[in-house]
Amino acid sequence: MKDFAGTPGTGLGLALRTSQFIFAAGSIASMATTPNFFNFTAFCYLIASMGLQFIWSFVLALLDAYALVKKKVLHNAVLVSLFVVGDWVTATLSLAAASSSAGITVLYFNDLGRCHFGQECQKYQISVALAFLSWIPIAISSLIMLWLLAAG
Protein backbone atom coordinates (compact mmCIF):
# COMPACT_ATOMS: atom_id res chain seq x y z
CA MET A 1 0.00 0.00 0.00
CA LYS A 2 1.13 3.50 -0.71
CA ASP A 3 2.20 5.89 1.99
CA PHE A 4 0.74 9.39 1.80
CA ALA A 5 -0.42 12.10 4.17
CA GLY A 6 -3.24 11.22 6.52
CA THR A 7 -2.75 7.45 6.49
CA PRO A 8 -2.61 5.55 9.80
CA GLY A 9 0.66 6.05 11.61
CA THR A 10 1.44 9.49 10.16
CA GLY A 11 1.43 12.87 11.86
CA LEU A 12 -1.50 14.13 9.81
CA GLY A 13 -3.44 10.95 10.57
CA LEU A 14 -2.89 11.57 14.28
CA ALA A 15 -3.90 15.23 13.89
CA LEU A 16 -7.12 14.26 12.10
CA ARG A 17 -8.04 11.70 14.77
CA THR A 18 -7.21 14.11 17.57
CA SER A 19 -9.34 16.87 16.10
CA GLN A 20 -12.21 14.38 15.66
CA PHE A 21 -12.34 13.34 19.28
CA ILE A 22 -11.73 16.85 20.64
CA PHE A 23 -14.63 18.32 18.66
CA ALA A 24 -16.83 15.34 19.56
CA ALA A 25 -15.99 15.75 23.25
CA GLY A 26 -16.77 19.47 23.02
CA SER A 27 -20.11 18.74 21.39
CA ILE A 28 -21.00 16.22 24.08
CA ALA A 29 -19.91 18.56 26.88
CA SER A 30 -21.85 21.49 25.49
CA MET A 31 -25.03 19.45 25.03
CA ALA A 32 -24.77 17.48 28.28
CA THR A 33 -24.47 20.63 30.39
CA THR A 34 -27.98 21.69 29.37
CA PRO A 35 -30.75 20.37 31.61
CA ASN A 36 -33.38 19.85 28.88
CA PHE A 37 -31.55 18.26 25.95
CA PHE A 38 -33.27 14.90 26.59
CA ASN A 39 -36.61 16.46 25.57
CA PHE A 40 -35.43 16.49 21.94
CA THR A 41 -34.80 13.17 20.21
CA ALA A 42 -32.36 14.68 17.74
CA PHE A 43 -30.20 16.00 20.57
CA CYS A 44 -30.16 12.56 22.23
CA TYR A 45 -29.12 11.09 18.88
CA LEU A 46 -26.37 13.71 18.66
CA ILE A 47 -25.04 12.70 22.09
CA ALA A 48 -25.05 9.01 21.12
CA SER A 49 -23.41 9.66 17.76
CA MET A 50 -20.74 11.94 19.19
CA GLY A 51 -20.08 9.38 21.93
CA LEU A 52 -19.40 6.74 19.30
CA GLN A 53 -17.31 9.24 17.35
CA PHE A 54 -15.27 10.08 20.45
CA ILE A 55 -14.55 6.43 21.29
CA TRP A 56 -13.67 5.48 17.70
CA SER A 57 -11.42 8.48 17.12
CA PHE A 58 -9.73 8.27 20.52
CA VAL A 59 -8.82 4.61 20.06
CA LEU A 60 -7.49 5.24 16.55
CA ALA A 61 -5.54 8.29 17.78
CA LEU A 62 -3.90 6.07 20.39
CA LEU A 63 -3.12 3.52 17.67
CA ASP A 64 -1.65 6.26 15.46
CA ALA A 65 0.44 7.59 18.34
CA TYR A 66 1.73 4.08 19.08
CA ALA A 67 2.60 3.57 15.41
CA LEU A 68 4.44 6.91 15.32
CA VAL A 69 6.44 6.14 18.46
CA LYS A 70 7.33 2.60 17.38
CA LYS A 71 7.72 3.63 13.71
CA LYS A 72 5.29 0.93 12.58
CA VAL A 73 3.33 0.94 9.35
CA LEU A 74 -0.40 0.28 9.76
CA HIS A 75 -1.15 -0.63 6.17
CA ASN A 76 -2.36 -4.19 6.68
CA ALA A 77 -5.25 -4.79 4.25
CA VAL A 78 -7.55 -6.19 6.96
CA LEU A 79 -6.78 -3.31 9.31
CA VAL A 80 -7.32 -0.70 6.60
CA SER A 81 -10.62 -2.38 5.66
CA LEU A 82 -11.72 -2.10 9.29
CA PHE A 83 -10.71 1.57 9.31
CA VAL A 84 -12.69 2.21 6.12
CA VAL A 85 -15.87 0.64 7.45
CA GLY A 86 -15.56 2.29 10.86
CA ASP A 87 -14.79 5.70 9.40
CA TRP A 88 -17.66 5.60 6.93
CA VAL A 89 -20.14 4.42 9.57
CA THR A 90 -19.12 7.09 12.07
CA ALA A 91 -18.98 9.76 9.36
CA THR A 92 -22.51 8.92 8.23
CA LEU A 93 -23.87 8.83 11.78
CA SER A 94 -22.13 12.08 12.70
CA LEU A 95 -23.42 13.96 9.67
CA ALA A 96 -26.96 12.65 10.21
CA ALA A 97 -26.92 13.59 13.90
CA ALA A 98 -25.45 17.04 13.27
CA SER A 99 -27.92 17.73 10.46
CA SER A 100 -30.97 16.61 12.43
CA SER A 101 -29.89 18.59 15.48
CA ALA A 102 -29.24 21.64 13.34
CA GLY A 103 -32.71 21.31 11.85
CA ILE A 104 -34.32 21.13 15.28
CA THR A 105 -32.22 24.03 16.52
CA VAL A 106 -33.26 26.24 13.62
CA LEU A 107 -36.91 25.14 13.74
CA TYR A 108 -37.52 25.53 17.45
CA PHE A 109 -35.25 28.39 18.30
CA ASN A 110 -35.34 30.60 15.22
CA ASP A 111 -38.45 29.81 13.19
CA LEU A 112 -40.89 29.18 16.03
CA GLY A 113 -39.26 31.63 18.43
CA ARG A 114 -39.39 29.22 21.35
CA CYS A 115 -35.96 29.95 22.72
CA HIS A 116 -37.01 30.76 26.27
CA PHE A 117 -34.07 28.87 27.72
CA GLY A 118 -31.57 31.75 27.46
CA GLN A 119 -28.01 30.47 27.58
CA GLU A 120 -29.23 26.92 26.92
CA CYS A 121 -30.03 27.82 23.30
CA GLN A 122 -26.48 28.99 22.76
CA LYS A 123 -25.17 25.69 24.13
CA TYR A 124 -27.36 23.77 21.69
CA GLN A 125 -26.00 25.84 18.83
CA ILE A 126 -22.40 25.40 19.98
CA SER A 127 -22.91 21.66 20.30
CA VAL A 128 -24.28 21.42 16.77
CA ALA A 129 -21.42 23.55 15.40
CA LEU A 130 -18.85 21.34 17.14
CA ALA A 131 -20.59 18.25 15.75
CA PHE A 132 -20.19 19.61 12.23
CA LEU A 133 -16.57 20.49 12.99
CA SER A 134 -16.07 16.90 14.14
CA TRP A 135 -17.56 15.61 10.92
CA ILE A 136 -15.10 17.48 8.67
CA PRO A 137 -11.97 15.57 9.79
CA ILE A 138 -13.81 12.23 9.87
CA ALA A 139 -14.94 12.83 6.29
CA ILE A 140 -11.35 13.56 5.31
CA SER A 141 -10.14 10.46 7.16
CA SER A 142 -12.76 8.24 5.57
CA LEU A 143 -11.82 9.44 2.08
CA ILE A 144 -8.12 8.89 2.81
CA MET A 145 -8.82 5.37 4.12
CA LEU A 146 -10.90 4.53 1.05
CA TRP A 147 -8.16 5.89 -1.19
CA LEU A 148 -5.55 3.85 0.71
CA LEU A 149 -7.62 0.69 0.38
CA ALA A 150 -8.18 1.27 -3.34
CA ALA A 151 -4.49 2.01 -3.94
CA GLY A 152 -3.43 -1.11 -2.03
TrEMBL record:
Protein family (similarity comment): Belongs to the Casparian strip membrane proteins (CASP) family.
Primary subcellular site in the record, as a coarse category: membrane
Topology term for the membrane: Multi-pass membrane protein
Domain Casparian strip membrane protein residue range list: 7-136
UniProt keyword annotations, A-Z: Cell membrane, Membrane, Transmembrane, Transmembrane helix
Phylogenetic lineage: Eukaryota, Viridiplantae, Streptophyta, Embryophyta, Tracheophyta
Localization terms from the record: Cell membrane
Transmembrane segments: 40-66, 78-109, 129-150
This protein's name: CASP-like protein
Subunit relationships: Homodimer and heterodimers.
A GO-annotated cellular component: plasma membrane
